[in-house]
Amino acid sequence: YLTVGGNAFLLDEPQRTNLVTFSNNFTNSTKNLQNLTTTINAAISPDGTSNASKIVANTTNTSHRLTNDISIIAGNIYAFSIFAKKSELNFLQLVPPSSSFGSAFVNFDLTNGVVGSVSASNILTTKIEEIKDGFFKCSFTSSAFASSSSDISVVLIQSATAPRLQSFAGNNINGIFIYGLQIEIGAQASSYIPTA
């Protein structure tokens, strides 16, 4: 069952597993913060509680990202998703592990609710879906060409057409809100499955 606004809905979806542990704890040791800071419980998330986090770029002129290691098996199609909401910054980039997916990336515009630039190879589908209160579910699918244990990157960017792992200098203030990172085997993203 999925509960939204106090109402329960029966979900007709295939059985899935979220491969991300501590899927909404962005300060857990499973997450690696590279040139950004995270504030937990910074906004109301799509589940109606104050458990969305804010990620903010520091002043180093480089890429600003949060990573999470996952194990990938060659030949599988994976669905990657996260909920995101603009704050001072308006854009998000998702980058799967290069050792299994090459130079794949997808940009998302959190103001206009559209997909921005997408890498020329190894992205099967992309989607951005408005959820509530400014949050969008950003997702894509890709096929793994090699097995690996490597990281998915949630990246702060400055435009919908930003290159992969864009470099810029932040100000320790500007960022976006995120909630519920999910990676699963499947041809499309399913409903969010919280993990601990």
Descriptive overview:
By secondary structure, this protein is mostly beta strands. 2% of the residues lie in helices and 48% in strands. The strands form 3 sheets. A 6-stranded antiparallel beta sheet has the order 3-6-13-8-9-10. It has a 6-stranded antiparallel beta sheet with strand order 4-5-14-7-12-11, with no helix packed on it. Strands 1-2 form a two-stranded antiparallel sheet. It is globular.
Overall 3D form: globular
Number of separate strands: 14
- Taking Cα atoms only, what radius of gyration do you get, to the nearest Å? 16 Å
Mean pLDDT comes to 94
Order of helices and strands: EEEEEEEEHEEEEEE
Strand fraction: over 45%
What oligomeric state do these chains adopt? single chain
Which residues form runs of ≥5 with pLDDT under 50?
none
The helix count comes to 1
End-to-end C-alpha gap: 19 Å
Protein structure class: mainly beta
Helix content: under 10%
Strand order of the largest sheet: 3-6-13-8-9-10
Describe the largest sheet: 6 strands, antiparallel
Would you summarize the structure shown here?
The chain is an all-beta fold.
How is this fold's topology laid out?
Blueprint: E1 2-4, E2 7-9, E3 31-34, E4 36-43, E5 52-57, E6 64-72, E7 77-86, E8 91-95, H1 98-101, E9 106-109, E10 114-118, E11 125-132, E12 135-143, E13 148-157, E14 175-185
Antiparallel strand pairs: 1-2, 3-6, 4-5, 5-14, 6-13, 7-12, 7-14, 8-9, 8-13, 9-10, 11-12
